[in-house]
Amino acid sequence: MKFTDVCLITENVLVLTNFYEAILQTKAEGNDIHAEIETIGTGLAIYSKKAAETDMGFDFSKHWGTGNFTLGFNVHDVDVEYERLIITGIEFLTPPTTYPWGARSMHFRDPDGNIICFRSRPIVGDHHSIFN
Questions:
Q1: How confident is the model at residue 123 (pLDDT cuts 50, 70, 90)?
Q2: What is the DSSP letter of 60?
Q3: I need a labelling partner for 90 at 20 to 30 A (CA). Which of 51, 82, 114, 118 fits?
Q4: What is the helix (H) or strand (E) element at residue 43, kind and residue range?
């Protein structure tokens, strides 16, 4: 089995797509109903709520779940990314912080309120972490 993507269901595909293109410095493939962004390891899909409900045949508002998740992206240097993103006006939930397990992370929200984590971990000796 291969984990292929996370799909964000939204009322405004274009706004969310533009946001992720900017923070991930990449281009999406798609339109105002469905867009996909490829990243190393897995993909990110963005899907119109109205179209998804029509296509799948159920009301998402009855099946949202808890919303207890974050989208995590490994970056080379979280401090450099912080400086790049701070000028965009993004409101950060946490500035770059080093956690006891060694990851240095920052957290912010996308236009729909989903929490995003950018993280990096220092490379020690010849060993690379799963976060790099």
A1: low
A2: G
A3: 51
A4: strand 43-48
